[in-house]
Design goal:
This protein has 252 residues and is an alpha/beta fold. It is built from five helices and 15 strands. The protein has one domain. The N and C termini lie far apart (41 Å).
Length: 252
């Protein structure tokens, strides 16, 4: 790969660091209220996410949030109405720029924004410092796809492990996948896409190595991305190998 923008994962956290930029996605503030309505009581993770972001900061003045700030679709819960504005206000107090790329759960997000300080990028994404950012539920714009590096969320990637007794566990993971090349839709494509794990630890994750499981979002389904050659990394930085070598069969 040619020299280009560099994105470095923060050890043990689903947060990326670039020059002057921190990036995270899939906060799903309000999912705990959804769980509670179903009889599962999980404490709110919003304060923890605030602290994870602020504890990762090392002079960065821009925060990019890759969508799904809120959880409920449609509408909003009492938890969202209380915690989303508070979270965004704290971020605008700490960062010079706070940018949200709109996710599929972010309908009506404008009503939660502080009076100033939060920029909303369209669902087709944002290009900043030669890096493309997108939530991932829609096709990126051609401008975003002209970036050498693309960063997306939406997938909540996790790695599933199965022991000799057939018991399974899963861990959040990063995916770093090359592109197969341009096509008729995009005359230019990035060299690599990084798929970011969900920042909200209540989310769990979606196993990306489960045989037969279809990827989320049009870009990963299109064949433009070489998923089988994608590198899989745990949050502590351990490289597990390429996704194509880590497939496991569904339990019967």
């Amino acid at each position: 790969m040619s020299d280009g923008p560099v994105a470095i994962p923060v050890i043990d956290l689903p947060i990326l660091r670039m020059e002057g930029i921190l990036c995270a996605g899939d906060l799903h503030i309000g999912i705990e209220a959804d769980y509670s309505d179903k009889g599962v009581h999980v404490p709110s993770q919003t304060h923890r996410m605030e602290n994870d972001i602020m504890g990762s900061r090392d002079g960065e003045n821009t925060l990019v949030l890759l969508g799904d700030i809120k959880h409920m679709v449609p509408g909003s819960s009492r938890q969202e109405r209380s915690e989303v504005p508070r979270f965004l206000m704290r971020m605008t107090d700490e960062f010079d720029r706070v940018i949200v790329t709109r996710g599929n759960h972010d309908g009506g997000i404008e009503e939660f924004l502080p009076a100033n300080g939060v920029e909303i990028a369209p669902a087709t994404g944002l290009k900043l410092n030669d890096i493309g950012f997108i939530h991932g539920h829609t096709w990126p714009s051609r401008e975003v796809m002209s970036s050498p590096l693309l960063i997306m969320a939406h997938v909540h990637p996790a790695m599933m492990f199965k022991d000799n007794l057939g018991r399974t566990t899963s861990e959040p993971c990063w995916l770093r996948c090359p592109f197969n090349g341009p096509d008729r839709r995009y005359l230019e494509v990035p060299e690599e896409v990084i798929v970011v794990p969900a920042l909200n630890r209540s989310m769990g994750g979606s196993p990306v190595n489960l045989e037969g499981k279809k990827p989320l979002g049009p870009l990963l389904k299109s064949g433009l991305v070489d998923l089988e050659a994608g590198g899989v990394y745990l949050l502590d930085g351990i490289f597990l190998g390429n996704l194509g070598d880590l497939r496991i069969q569904r339990s019967k």
